[in-house]
Amino acid sequence: MAPQPGTAFQEAVMRKCRESAEMKARFFEANAGTLEQVCRRMADALSAGRQLFVMGNGGSACDALHAAVEFVHPILEKRRAFPARALTCDPALLTAIGNDSDFSQTFAEQLRLFGRAGDVALGISTSGMSANVNYGLEAAREIGMLTVAFAGKDGGRSKDVDSGSAHDAAARDVGHGACDVGGRGRHLGIGVGGRGLPL
């Protein structure tokens, strides 16, 4: 039977909406300065002709695709396009690496081949514990790329291998903010190699 208007179902939906909005407000209030640094440093890299590589698993793989599209084909007016690719797009390559080598290396191997110093690597992981995302971030740092992680919970291991982190639940808003800052000729960013920016 379908839920009736005014029932506990509607109350639960509204409670979840409020919780989400409150969590995002707390996150952005606490981290706006660091996020601005991250976005500006990303924009500096992209404006200098560098590429963005995005990676994740499952739903985060879909988020990686979404993020790449937002940079390559901006849907808002007067936004500059930037080169970006999701490392999750080629099933033949992903399964070849997973079968012949190790699934934990699926992103690291691609970054070692395609990435260059000064490029940007964005890893998305709900737990922060995705081995292939974290190995990808490590490989990117070794190359001298800017590394960024969007991770849930306490950030997991991702917070130790990136240059800047964001909570997974706020990641889409952060990504849109990064696109917006970069696309208006201002500069977004993260640290190259080096220490992480605490969030």
Description:
With 199 residues, this protein is an alpha/beta fold. The protein has one domain: Rossmann fold. The chain is 53% helix and 12% strand. A five-stranded parallel beta sheet has the order 2-1-3-4-5. Strand 4 (146-151), helix 6 (158-161) and strand 5 (164-167) form a beta-alpha-beta unit. Helix 1 (8-47) packs parallel to helix 7 and helix 2 (59-72) runs parallel beside helix 7. The chain is globular and about 55 Å long. The model is unreliable at 164-177 and 179-199 (pLDDT under 50).
Query: Are there runs of 5+ residues with pLDDT below 50, and where?
Result: 164-177, 179-199
CATH topology name, in short, is: Rossmann fold
CATH superfamily: Glucose-6-phosphate isomerase like protein, domain 1
| Largest beta sheet: strand ordering | 2-1-3-4-5
List the secondary-structure elements in sequence, H or E: HEHEHHEHEHEH
Shape: globular
**Any idea what the CATH architecture is?**
3-Layer(aba) Sandwich
* CATH class descriptor name: Alpha Beta
Count of separate DSSP helical elements: 7
Number of strands: 5
**Main beta sheet strand tally, sense and closure:** 5 strands, parallel
Summed over residues and divided by their number, the pLDDT gives a mean of 79
Helix content: 40-55%
Q: Which structural category fits the helices and strands?
A: alpha/beta
Q: Number of folding domains?
A: 1
Beta-strand residue fraction: 5-15%
**Alpha carbon gyration radius:** 17 Å
Q: Span from first to last CA? A: 45 Å
Q: What is the secondary structure topology, with strand pairs?
A:
Layout lengths: L7 H40 L4 E4 L3 H14 L11 E3 L4 H12 L3 H9 L5 E6 L5 H13 L2 E6 L6 H4 L2 E4 L3 H13 L16
Parallel strand pairs: 1-2, 1-3, 3-4, 4-5
Helix pairs in contact: 1-7, 2-7, 4-5
